[in-house]
Structures are given as structure tokens and as C-alpha cells.
Write a structure and sequence with these properties.
Length: 289
């Protein structure tokens, strides 16, 4: 990646937040927006972008609270907030329907946006974006969830960003988070994922409040209702070593009109990192590029 000329940095505003995105150029090509996952950043798409940029005008935002985007005052990072931000970005830079490519949280945002605004999306690639597996959706009383959430928010208010004495220790943490990463991938993701503090240490760029779990349960009924409104060609990608669950078995795939499901072998949650070549082959076939 060292010899690759990278994208330009740009900003837009949503709900009074200054949000960052990178632009890989080729403004005369069809636009594709790539959305990263939780506690990640826009430069995690660089390997995908380098392979697809000749076919698309590629844009990758840092979600609010991530990368070089503002942190939300009050620490609210609900799904609808990210959908609003994406809609604002599309209104600011897109002249018509766009292709959306998302991973994890970003895939969830893309799926929601495509269902709420079906005319604004012409193709959709969602990696590991259908929410937590059924085993994690344990029903608990609303008061208990709210009480736990308040406790979590109070704890996060006292939590300071972890400081790594040098880049190598941050790199070790990145490697531990995904054992599939090559040394070059881990270093690239770390370099773009940390900021240097005044005392010379390094901390991750994301806001610790993004760790908070909403007191409102993942509403599968609402989600499937929104997914059923998606009209564009949709590619759902999962890794066979992921914790995400079996979407055919739990019925989530039934919500889609035109979705294709592809399971990539020897890949975990970060499919586009773990098996880049196979992921690109599947995406190229799907998008016809």
C-alpha cells in the first residue's frame, strides 16, 4: 500500500457534526459509498478501493464518532443517527442513485438506508450486516435494560482512552483483534486508526461511547420490514468462521426480494480483509465490473 496514491480528505456536516470522508476520484464514474464497521475507520477500505476505483467514483466516510469525524455530544450513536448522516452525505455529493458497500455496522446502515429510501440505491453489498445472531437476542425487561444502559454510560464517562506507549503496542492490539490480518494490513489499519497524543502516546481515534449498547433491543420485526422494501440488487456476504449466525436458518434471508447470499470460506467477521481476492471476485461478478 505504500506506493499507492491515496484518496483526498473532505468534510460535510450532519446534525451539527463535522464528518470526514475520503474520495478516491474519478468523478465521471458511477458513485459508490463504502461504510465501515463499528470502532473502525474509512481507510479500512483501501485495498477494496484500489481494486474498484477504476470502475467507480469511490467515497468512504468516517462514521460519527470514528476516524477523523466529530464525536457526538452526549454520546448518541443510534442506527438512525448513522442513517441520517449517510442520507446527508448522499444529498451533498451524489447526483443520483448510488451503490452502497458496507461492513458490519456500516452494512446495517446501508441496508436501512436502502429500505427507507429504495429509489436512492441502485446496488447494495452488505458484509455481515444483518444484526446479532438469534442466540444473542435474549429478551430482558425494559427497566433492566435501561438500568444497565445508565450504568454503562456512567462507566464510560469515567473511562479514559487507552494510551499505548508506542505504535508497536497498538499494532499488537490490532493483530490480536483479527488473527487473519497480514502484518502489512495490521500496520496500515493501525497507522490510520490512531492519533498521537500530546504526551507522545497513541490512542485509537474512535469515541469510547460507541461501545455502549442501546437499551432498545435489536428489533428484528422492524428490520425485516425495512429490508423487505429494498428493491435494488443486493449481495449479502458472510464469513464461514464468523459469529454472525446462519441467515437462511433463522429466516432473515426471507425478508429480501432480490438478495443473493454468499458465504466465503476461511473468513471471519472482516471478510474483505480475511479473503480479499475471493471477496473482490464475488463483488466484481455481482456489480458487473
Amino acid at each position: 500500500m505504500a506506493d499507492i496514491i491515496g484518496p483526498t480528505s473532505n468534510y460535510f456536516y450532519s446534525q451539527r457534526l463535522k464528518l470526514h470522508y475520503v474520495d478516491w476520484g474519478n468523478a465521471d464514474k458511477p458513485m459508490a459509498i463504502m461504510l465501515h464497521g463499528g470502532r473502525d475507520h474509512c481507510r479500512n477500505w483501501d485495498w477494496v478501493a484500489f481494486e474498484l476505483r477504476q470502475h467507480f467514483h469511490l467515497v468512504a466516510p468516517d462514521l460519527r464518532g470514528h476516524g477523523d469525524s466529530d464525536w457526538a455530544i452526549g454520546g448518541s450513536y443510534a442506527m438512525i443517527d448513522h442513517v441520517v448522516d449517510l442520507n446527508q452525505l448522499m444529498n451533498a455529493i451524489a447526483a443520483g442513485p448510488v451503490t452502497l458497500i458496507g461492513h458490519s455496522l456500516g452494512a446495517g446502515v446501508a441496508l436501512q438506508a436502502a429500505g427507507v429510501f429504495p429509489g436512492a440505491v441502485k446496488a447494495l453489498v452488505a458484509i455481515e450486516g444483518l444484526g446479532p445472531p438469534s442466540a444473542m437476542l435474549r429478551e430482558t425487561p425494559a427497566y433492566e435494560r435501561m438500568e444497565n444502559w445508565v450504568g454503562d454510560m456512567r462507566a464510560l464517562a469515567q473511562r479514559k482512552p487507552r494510551e499505548y506507549p508506542n505504535l508497536e503496542e497498538a499494532l499488537e492490539r490490532m493483530r490480536a483483534a483479527n488473527l487473519h490480518l497480514s502484518p502489512a494490513q495490521a500496520r496500515h489499519l493501525t497507522v490510520h486508526g490512531v492519533r498521537r497524543n500530546e504526551n507522545g502516546t497513541y490512542s485509537w481515534k474512535f469515541d469510547n461511547y460507541t461501545r455502549a449498547h442501546s437499551p432498545y433491543l435489536f428489533n428484528l420485526k422492524d428490520a425485516t420490514e425495512i429490508w423487505s422494501r429494498i428493491r435494488c440488487p443486493t449481495l449479502l456476504v458472510r464469513g464461514d468462521e464468523s459469529w454472525a449466525g446462519d441467515w437462511e436458518r433463522d429466516g432473515r434471508l426471507d425478508s429480501f426480494h432480490t438478495a443473493e447470499l454468499v458465504t466465503i470460506r476461511n473468513a471471519g467477521h472482516w471478510v474483505h480483509h480475511d479473503q480479499l481476492a475471493e471477496f473482490l471476485a464475488v463483488v466484481r461478478r455481482f456489480l458487473g465490473v
